[in-house]
Amino acid sequence: MINDKHKVTRRELLNRGAAAIGLTAMAPLAPLMLTGCDSRAPEPSTVKVGILHSQTGTMAISEISLVDMEMMAIEEINAAGGVLGRMIQPVIEDARSRSADIFPKKAAKLLVEDKVAAVFGCWTSASRIAVLPVFEEHNGLLFYPLQYEGNECSRNVVYTGLAPNQQIIPAIDWLVSGEGGGRRRFFLLGSDYVYPRTANYIVGKYVEQHGAEIVGELYTPLGGRDYKAVVDEIVAVNPDVIFSTLNGDTNVHFYRELANRGITPQQLPVFATSLGEDELRGILPADVEGHLAGWSYFQTVDTPANNSFVERFQAEHGEDRVVSDPMEAAYAQVYLWKLAVEKAGSFEVDRVLEAFNSGIEFDAPGGKIMVDPKTRHTYKPFLIGRIRKDRQFDIVYETPTWIKPDPYPALAFPGWQCDWTDGGVTAGEEVQIRSV
Q1: Is pLDDT of 29 > 90?
Q2: d(CA 274, CA 256)
Q3: CATH class of the region 4-162+302-379
């Protein structure tokens, strides 16, 4: 890490990048300007990386902060000398919360026109799936910082969020335990796209093994605002826990409706897999206090490394800003790329991917993480937090160690495996995700 006196501001970073580009553009004139000198073009002084998130639209509430974190990591790395002697030049694109068209269009621009060495991007699984063919066609490298539903293992993606066996399965283990309230009647509520539907497919499979049951399952559009009928349906079937995979600003309206109806977390807790500190900034404390969420990181992790991390972020962006799990992953994945590039001695994608075969580790703010050589998913711990009045989390449960990632839990995807050190993906039984 760096001291404040060595900190490079974003404006200075961009000015430095612009100056470097200008010098690079002058390289063809060097033989005319410096007669008698070596006429070979100088080595580039920068390396481009892409940042691809939604800064407008319904997902902006979540994704803008990922841009801030990735920029923070880039600024730190540049201030410390860059990567292989080059300054990182970010190329930032706004995908406008439009997974089907803008995300793949912007991904192609970054890879083909800007020729970036890597892209840090996406939030929803819909956006990741939309850009995947672009990265595979052009042999690009995507770092994806979100927890997700599994059932995927691409050669061209490093997954730095939680896999389903690292979040969904330990969450259910806790909820059905005495410590978690002995829950037996689950209502599944999600946004209407691939992550919630696939995640809930896994939930259904695993809940059955505990003698519990799914009493209702409902999906609402991203950006949805009216949750009166949703809460009516939940109340009608009398669950003892709501397992929520709602994303974006729809959470504001759902929790508000619960509170308006006088439904407390003591009566009916919500366990969320996609609600963190950043989203909570837009929700009234009285609407969410006491409800639950499960991640690999909370801002309240009390270690010197994490406290310093939060302080540096707030010094740059304001004391009212908060840090969440996807934000920490977005920050850490820039460093994971740096470490792999340095191990490879190259920015070339195939060599960087080969470097990950050694198990790249990083002391992230929340604790040490490692990219699994086989799946290129990340070893991480799992934590459960209860929302406080200040919209932070009291950590009520933590796994004793990190969990090995598995994008294909056998209970849901029998026969499927992934090992990029030995041939890649092995297909198992065909799985049909139920449409509701």
Answers
A1: no
A2: 17
A3: alpha beta
